Each structure stands twice: as C-alpha cells, then as structure tokens.
Amino acid sequence: MNTEWLHSFAEAAKLKSFSKASKELNLSQPALSKHIRNLEHDLDVTLFYRTSGGIELTEAGERFYTRIVPVISDLASIRRELQQYRQTDYLALGSLPSLATYYLPSRIKALQRSHTLMIQNTSGDLLQSLKEGRLDSVLVDSLYTDDSVWHCELFTERYYAVFSVDHRFRSKTTVTLSDLCGEPLIVHQAPCDTRSHIHRQMEALGHKPHIVNEVSFGDFIFGYVMAGMGFAIVPELVAKNIGHLNLFTLPIADFKRSISLAAKSGKLGTQLSSFLLSAD
C-alpha cells in the first residue's frame, strides 16, 4: 500500500472532489485517479461512488477514512522524528528526467558529496516527495512551486519542436504554437509536465493539440518522429543533445519553461543554488 495512494484518497475524501484534490496535491487528475484505483484494487473494495455531481464515500470508504487519517498523521510524525538519524552529509535529490540527463550530471560530479537521485515525471510528485521528507532538494518546473517550500529560479529555456528531416517546416528558422496546432503530435504518456503545458498553452489559443501517439518516457519518442508519424515538443536541454539523430529542431518562439530548485530549508537551498549557478 503506497503512501501516495493514501494521501490522494484522504484529500479526495476531505474535498469530495478528485479535481480539487489533484490541485491541492499538485498532481494531475489522471494520476490521482490512478492512485485511487490502485488503492481500491489493493484493498479489494470500492471506496467512492462516482456520480454526475462528484464523488461520495462508500460505507467501506467511510470506515477506511476514519481509520487511515490518524495513520497518515502518525507516519508523518515518525518520518520527522527519524530525520535526526539521517547522515548529515548524505543528500537525497529529485529531478525531472530531462534535467537528470542533461543538466545535473556534470554539476553533481563536481559537488563531491554522497547523494541519491530520484527521477519522477512530474514536478508535483517531486514537490510532494520533498514535503514528505523523502527528498532534501528537487529540480522542478517553476510553475509548480509555492510559498510552502523554499525555492529559487535557476534558468529559463525555450521548448523546441522536433521534426523528421522531410517535414515541410524544414526551411523555417523558428515556429510558434499557432503554427503547430494542426500538426500531428507525439507526446509522452501522462502524467508529464511538458504534456500538461502543451495542452494548457494550445487551449489558451483556442485549439486542442492533435495528439496521434502516446509513448513511454525515454528516447522512443524520437524513433516515432524519425518514422514520420508526427512531431514532438521537448525542452531546449533535450533538443540540443539529439543532433546525432536524423531529425531537425526549431525553437518555439512563444513557449518556454522556467526551472527552479526547491529545498527542505533555506540554508541547504542557498548552498545548492549557489553551487549550481556558479557551475554555469
């Protein structure tokens, strides 16, 4: 039984809404719904009634909520108590996949400090892990940070569109999101920060992304693009490191992301941010 499932259940039960609970926990609604389904499967009971007006706890759900809320509180208390036994020189870091691949390695090598690195697909999940004490510091999309944790912006970068070499945009030097709205798009499976941004920004322009394929995280997406099945949108860090592939990339003039460092304390955050920024 995963503690993230328990937090998702408790928040949904308290707010009587999956959408409100997902916003409160900085999760996508599909991710929270999956947590609930996993928990129901694990317990072999139905916890919520789904109705057109929202959600309601079943009798089993009411009993589980009453019993599990004190347990969640106890787990948080135990975690806090055990912090004193952690190695003070051991650093638990978290990162989005693109940053873990192309931004952190050279900088971590120079850090000369024992560490672990947890990679998660969304900033919301990383920040939740930070708040629960499982991580000391995380690199996330700045859109997801708030005043509940210390944070500092590190850099801003453009998103790039990735095309097969025979695409009709080959003669262009840049594109806008409006140029891309009707193009067949290949995305990573949800939950995914970039996917969420694409939806949000294109819908703001009055369009829906024309998604034709969804693939797992990793470089599989570029194989689909090379085969001419559509185009992809990736952060600049990724786009600058795929020159060896039979593809071409164009910067998207009106689509950017900002990356921030969040930390469990201002002291640690200030030390790490100074180190990371001085390495640039």
UniProtKB/TrEMBL annotation:
Belongs to the LysR transcriptional regulatory family. CDD domains: PBP2_LTTR_substrate. InterPro entries: LysR_HTH_N, LysR_subst-bd, WH-like_DNA-bd_sf, WH_DNA-bd_sf. Keywords: DNA-binding, Transcription, Transcription regulation. Residues 1-58 form the HTH lysR-type domain. Pfam families: HTH_1 (PF00126), LysR_substrate (PF03466). The keyword Transmembrane does not apply. The keyword Cell cycle does not apply. PROSITE patterns: HTH_LYSR (PS50931). One of its GO terms (molecular function) is DNA-binding transcription factor activity. It comes from Paenibacillus elgii. Coiled coil: none annotated. This is LysR family transcriptional regulator.
